[in-house]
Amino acid sequence: MESSIFNRKSAITMPAALIFDMDGVLVDSNPFHLRKWIDLLNEHGIPYDPKELPSQILGHRNDTAFRRFFGPDITREESRRLSEELEARFREEFKPHAKPLPGLKALIGESHRAGIPMAVASSAMTKNVEFIVDALGFRPYFRYLVTGDEVSRPKPDPEIYLKAARKLDREPAACVAFEDSFVGIEAAKRAGMKCVAIASTFPFEELEKQTRADLTVTSFEEVNLERLRLLVKDAPGRRRPRENYKL
Q1: Ranges of each domain in the chain
Q2: Residue from 23, 28, 180, 214 carrying the catalytic annotation
Q3: Is the pTM above the cut of 0.85?
Q4: 134 included as an active-site residue
């Protein structure tokens, strides 16, 4: 009897939804992205600082990074062409290496069994998101894939996370986002969500000290629903009020 009462109370305070970034969260793809960016910049004779490059491109939408390196006057057409070229190279090289980060599959399975809806909110182009999710076999678990192609304002703007919450019909404050980058964590926090920082791309100490993440871990193996429940135990209602539907 006591156990069933505890389970009912726990269910009330479970996260309303889980929303995952992709690169560096679902998969360890960022080293591959970094190499392809280095190749592209070298081909075009564009200088860069190897120490600064990861924070300048990882977590950012490609058009933002292109303006940084190719100049603010780069056309939308040229940016799109370069992005298609860059990401086609990435997909070809990364395909044999696509596997979920340690502990991720267990968390997704546990959340699915608990009936918690899940989505992806990634700055990557739709082709990349579908490629990764399908390569992992995770498509049945995610109700929505929200990509950089669907928003006008990239991370750290919260638009992509607010859109994911709206699609899931959940209050952002009751959702938990998973991120690995500085701009991604900031986007989730600006959306009003709880955020778990995964130290797969940047050092644990930097994420813990320099971001507003609610929890920083080295791996999904440190995350389970009970730990996430504690993050949202004081969150407001799970479903979005009707008047908040329009972004």
Answers
A1: 2-28+98-244, 30-96
A2: 23
A3: yes
A4: no
pLDDT, tens digit, 9 for 90 and up, residues 36-75: 999 999 999 999 999 999 999 998 999 999 999 999 999 9
Compute the CA torsion angle 220, 225, 227, 232 (nearest 10 deg). Answer: 120
Residue 180, classed as helix, strand or coil, is coil
Orientation angle between helical segments 159-168 and 182-190, nearest 10 degrees:
50
User: Which two structure tokens, joined as six digits, stand for 231?
Assistant: 């993050």
Instruction: Decide if domain 2-28+98-244 falls under CATH 3.40.50.1000.
Output: yes
Laid out side by side, the sheet with 17-20 consists of: 144-146, 118-121, 17-20, 175-179, 194-198, 215-217
Give catalytic status of residue 39 as yes or no.
Answer: no
H runs (alpha helix) in the chain: 2-12, 30-43, 53-57, 62-70, 76-94, 104-113, 126-136, 159-168, 182-190, 204-210, 225-232
Residue 237's CB is within 10 A of a number of other CB atoms, namely 11
What distance in Å separates the CA atoms of residue 84 and residue 87, rounded to the nearest whole number?
5
Four-way CATH pick for 30-96: 1.10.12, 1.10.1740, 1.25.40, 1.10.150: 1.10.150
